[in-house]
């Protein structure tokens, strides 16, 4: 039988079976509260915040000082030493987290599966700050004398390119950028591709790094906690005193597999990704009421896609990033959508501990959700002490043992994207 | 099985603005290259690029920047495509089922470069509110969503030179899965000095004319522009009586997993990408009438692509016209494959294939029919459109007459 015939046959089979299931079999975390999902989870359930005065940027001239930086990452431990000096921070984060996820899934991307394996990463800015650093060198130096190796790792998606080459991924490589929802959009898209039979394995997630560029963008837009004057800088989602978010960074990736493929190799399964929904409501033409409606639309679309009713949902992994308006919109949307259960359904906001890592946030929340399902435990939302009547939802303040079968992950972007993902116990 | 069809097109190119002018220029082989005007090239050995000329826009945007933005090019092409498809007023439809996907390599880097040039001392001083509002890259699709009142899925595809085709592929899946009715898709790019320097220092830029597949080819010429199209579910298009250019049959993807900047020497990834597209479309290589090549004009790419085409098209390889419009409009990076998708549809509609210009000396290693220097009238039912990016990131799509 010719190989072409086999390929054709497989895609024909694929078209017949659109209802494949997607499962998470490996989690790789590089975060401000730990390298590896074990440390990440331990600190998350203990409520050990990763937020400190930032060391990687010189902020002496600016008002906001706090952030959640990744510390103690030794990329050589995961990637070896070769070529490491040409790589930038975000690339080291991503490649290290992929190694962690593959080890966790006990998966080796060998010749047999490499062309059925893809990589799909969400990032809001990727290696943007290194791109502008490189331009800054162009302005100050003789541009034609800059070494090509200086631009080796400076494209917005170069961390994904590097990872595809390093891990010999041959199915496809895709980078999605949709602002703060990039990570969740990548996971949602990976789910769709596995469902459609486009790949058996996808390395999916989000990566983001703290940089001066991002700091300046958020500072100018007055989105950071503390950028409104003398207020204290603290991440306190849904608290009455909240005044903006705290910047974070890291990389959170998953080995996502088609269920039968995972079972056939005896993989352990954290949970199933069973639905996704996304709706846009911009911040220019849309008033608060309309944005609340659209946030509900996105949650509803996701729950419909997963075929889960309002009564059956056990947990909401909230976007809640301590933003004045965004937390209000989210809480209002949850309260209205769930009707009688509006102020009962458990809501968890891990950004109180890890901060807002923009394009990687959705992936970070998904990691927290998969681990919560596995451990039957909801991590605490810290710093939420003064109840805000505008945020009338059931925030879980102390860690809480609880059987979780279905959890909704909310990821909302300030320019308008609202994306939601359903994670479910298999 | 539902189908995805193309119902509207829009172009902003270095050799013509608007589909009518741009297509006329392409089939007549008009070279869009010229001296770079948007920044000073005196520190470089190369001074030419394919810049969009005499671009005007009939709208003023909030937060105008002094430099051009992708948003302006994409807006202009998107407006043309929406008007062409008859969907310029979407308010009467369910807007949550209208989405946007745009590919770009560098996003709105040039406005930022413009500011940084004025503050070479300290980078942070280069920031102002205009930059804060044009970044992150996803601002392109958020702004377009607001401009046109779309409320469905939107994303920016950051996949270097195959960004446009990735965006189209992403949208195609959403349509096939019934999640949306209409998607505005494509790509937009400016010429950032950063990318110019990057290609320049990799010695990828040609010091003379860009001559893809020619024995004397010396590299690519960098370009800018936008190519946008409206794709929608066939039933939706029929119901509203839309004019249909072509069907988007399928896409194929692959990754070389080989090297950060060089393609796989035997084109293994390129072959997989084309084969994947053919098999999903349930087509044979015998069904393809024209290959819209990636054809950048670099020695490595064109040799690799030729080998890959020979491997896929076997005995027919030398009979199928293969051309590269990059010879005329330059390599528009993240926009390139989207622009080529638009011209693929125009080839089907008009039964004309645009030429590869500046072709003079045949290369024994590149011995296919590259449609040298003159456009060709030809019955075109089915087009295969290649895009191969740095990092070995390949996406091929196929358009056919409905």
Brief synopsis:
The complex is a heterodimer of chains A (426) and B (402). Chain A has helices at 3-16, 37-46, 76-79, 89-105, 111-114, 128-140, 158-166, 182-195, 212-220, 259-264, 288-306, 324-337, 351-354, 361-375; strands spanning 22-31, 34-35, 52-53, 66-68, 117-122, 172-177, 201-208, 247-248, 250-258, 271-280, 315-317, 346-348, 377-378, 394-395, 400-401, 406-412, 417-424.
Descriptive report:
The complex is a heterodimer of chains A (426) and B (402). Chain A is an alpha/beta fold. Chain A folds into 2 domains: 20-271, Peroxisomal Thiolase, Chain A, domain 1 (3-Layer(aba) Sandwich); 273-424, 3-Layer(aba) Sandwich (Peroxisomal Thiolase, Chain A, domain 1), CATH 3.40.47.10. Chain A is built from 14 helices and 17 strands. In chain A, the strands form 3 sheets. In chain A, strands 1, 2, 5, 6, 7, 9, 10, 11, 12, 14, 16 and 17 form a 12-stranded mixed beta sheet that branches. In chain A, strand 16 (406-412) and strand 17 (417-424) form a beta hairpin. Chain A is globular. Chain A starts with a helix and ends with a strand. The model of chain A is unreliable at 1-17 (pLDDT under 50). Chain B has 402 residues and is of the alpha/beta class. Chain B folds into 2 domains: 4-239, Thiolase/Chalcone synthase (Peroxisomal Thiolase, Chain A, domain 1, 3-Layer(aba) Sandwich), CATH 3.40.47; 253-400, Peroxisomal Thiolase, Chain A, domain 1 (3-Layer(aba) Sandwich), CATH 3.40.47. Chain B has helices at 19-27, 70-85, 109-117, 129-134, 139-148, 163-176, 193-201, 234-239, 268-280, 299-313, 326-329, 336-350, and strands at 4-13, 16-17, 34-35, 48-49, 98-103, 154-157, 182-189, 225-233, 246-255, 290-292, 322-323, 352-353, 376-377, 382-389, 393-400. In chain B, the strands form 3 sheets. In chain B, strands 1, 2, 5, 6, 7, 8, 9, 10, 11, 14 and 15 form an 11-stranded mixed beta sheet that branches. In chain B, helix 2 (70-85) runs parallel beside helix 5 and helix 6 (163-176) crosses helix 12 (336-350). Chain B is globular. Chain B starts with a strand and ends with a strand. The model of chain B has no long low-confidence stretch (mean pLDDT 95). Strand 6 of chain A pairs antiparallel with strand 6 of chain B.
């Amino acid at each position: 039988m010719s190989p072409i015939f086999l390929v054709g046959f497989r895609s024909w089979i694929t078209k017949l079976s659109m209802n494949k299931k997607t499962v998470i079999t490996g989690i790789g975390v590089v975060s401000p509260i730990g390298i590896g999902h074990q440390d990440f989870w331990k600190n998350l359930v203990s409520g050990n915040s990763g937020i400190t005065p930032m060391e990687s940027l010189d902020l002496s001239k600016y008002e906001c000082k706090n952030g959640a930086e990744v510390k103690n990452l030794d990329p050589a431990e995961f990637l070896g030493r070769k070529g490491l000096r040409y790589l930038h921070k975000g690339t080291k984060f991503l490649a290290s987290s992929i190694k962690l996820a593959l080890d966790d899934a006990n998966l080796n991307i060998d010749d047999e599966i490499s062309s059925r394996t893809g990589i799909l990463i969400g990032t809001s800015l990727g290696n943007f700050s290194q791109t502008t650093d490189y331009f800054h060198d162009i302005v100050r130096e003789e541009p034609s004398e800059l070494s090509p190796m200086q631009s080796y790792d400076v494209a917005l998606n170069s961390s994904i390119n590097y990872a595809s080459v390093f891990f010999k991924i041959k199915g496809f490589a895709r980078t999605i950028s949709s602002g703060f929802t990039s990570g969740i959009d990548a996971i949602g898209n990976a789910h769709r591709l596995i469902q459609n039979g486009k790949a058996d394995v996808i390395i999916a997630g989000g990566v983001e790094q703290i940089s001066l560029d991002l700091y300046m963008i958020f500072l100018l837009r007055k989105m950071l906690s503390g950028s409104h004057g003398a207020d204290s800088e603290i991440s306190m989602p849904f608290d009455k005193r909240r005044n903006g978010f705290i910047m974070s960074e890291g990389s959170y990736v998953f080995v996502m597999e088609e269920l039968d493929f995972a079972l056939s190799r005896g993989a352990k399964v954290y949970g199933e990704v069973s639905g996704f929904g996304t709706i846009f409501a911009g911040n220019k033409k849309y008033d608060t009421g309309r944005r609340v409606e659209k946030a509900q639309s996105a949650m509803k679309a996701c729950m419909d896609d997963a075929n889960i009713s309002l009564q059956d949902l056990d947990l909401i992994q909230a976007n809640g990033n301590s933003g004045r308006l965004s937390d209000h919109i989210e809480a209002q949307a949850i309260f209205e959508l769930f009707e009688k259960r509006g102020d009962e359904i458990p809501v968890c906001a891990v950004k109180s501990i890890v901060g807002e890592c923009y394009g990687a946030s959705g992936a970070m929340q998904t990691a927290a959700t998969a681990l919560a399902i596995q451990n039957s435990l909801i991590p605490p939302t810290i710093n939420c002490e003064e109840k805000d009547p505008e945020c009338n939802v059931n925030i879980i303040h102390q860690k809480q043992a609880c059987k979780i079968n279905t959890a909704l992950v909310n990821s909302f972007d300030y320019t308008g994207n609202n994306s939601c993902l359903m994670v479910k116990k298999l | 099985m539902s189908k995805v069809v193309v119902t509207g097109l829009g172009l902003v190119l270095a050799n013509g603005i608007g589909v009518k002018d741009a297509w006329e220029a392409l089939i007549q082989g008009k070279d869009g290259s010229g001296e770079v005007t948007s920044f000073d090239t005196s520190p470089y050995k190369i001074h030419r690029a394919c810049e969009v000329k005499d671009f005007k826009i009939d709208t003023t945007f909030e937060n105008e920047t002094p430099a051009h933005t992708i948003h302006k090019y994409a807006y202009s092409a998107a407006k043309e495509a929406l008007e062409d498809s008859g969907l310029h007023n979407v308010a009467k439809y369910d807007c949550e089922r209208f989405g946007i996907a745009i590919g770009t390599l560098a996003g709105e880097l040039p406005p930022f470069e413009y500011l940084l040039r004025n503050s070479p001392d300290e980078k942070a001083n280069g920031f102002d509110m205009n930059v804060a509002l044009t970044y992150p890259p996803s601002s392109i699709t958020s702004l377009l969503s607001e401009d046109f009142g779309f409320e469905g899925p939107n994303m920016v595809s950051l996949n270097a030179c195959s960004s446009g085709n990735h965006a189209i592929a992403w949208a195609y899946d959403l349509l096939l899965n019934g999640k949306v009715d209409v998607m505005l898709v494509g790509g937009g790019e400016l010429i950032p000095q950063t990318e110019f320097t990057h290609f320049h220092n990799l010695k990828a830029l040609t010091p003379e004319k860009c001559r893809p597949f020619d024995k004397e080819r010396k590299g690519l010429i960098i370009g800018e522009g936008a190519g946008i199209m409206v794709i929608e579910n066939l039933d939706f298009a029929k119901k509203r009586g839309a004019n249909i250019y072509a069907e988007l049959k399928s896409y194929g993807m692959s990754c070389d997993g080989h090297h950060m900047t060089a393609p796989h020497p035997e084109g293994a990834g390129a072959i997989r990408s084309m084969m994947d597209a053919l098999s999903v479309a349930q087509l044979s290589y015998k069904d393809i009438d024209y290959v819209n090549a990636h054809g950048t004009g670099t020695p490595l790419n064109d040799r690799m692509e030729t080998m890959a085409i020979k491997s896929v098209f076997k005995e027919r390889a030398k009979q199928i016209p293969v051309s590269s419009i990059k010879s005329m409009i330059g390599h528009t990076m993240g926009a390139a494959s989207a622009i080529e998708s638009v011209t693929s549809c125009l080839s089907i509609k008009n039964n004309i294939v645009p030429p590869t210009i500046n072709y003079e000396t045949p290369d024994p290693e590149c011995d296919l029919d590259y449609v040298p220097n003159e456009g060709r009238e030809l019955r075109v039912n089915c087009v295969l459109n290649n895009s191969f990016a740095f990092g070995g990131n390949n996406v091929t799509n196929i358009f056919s007459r409905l």
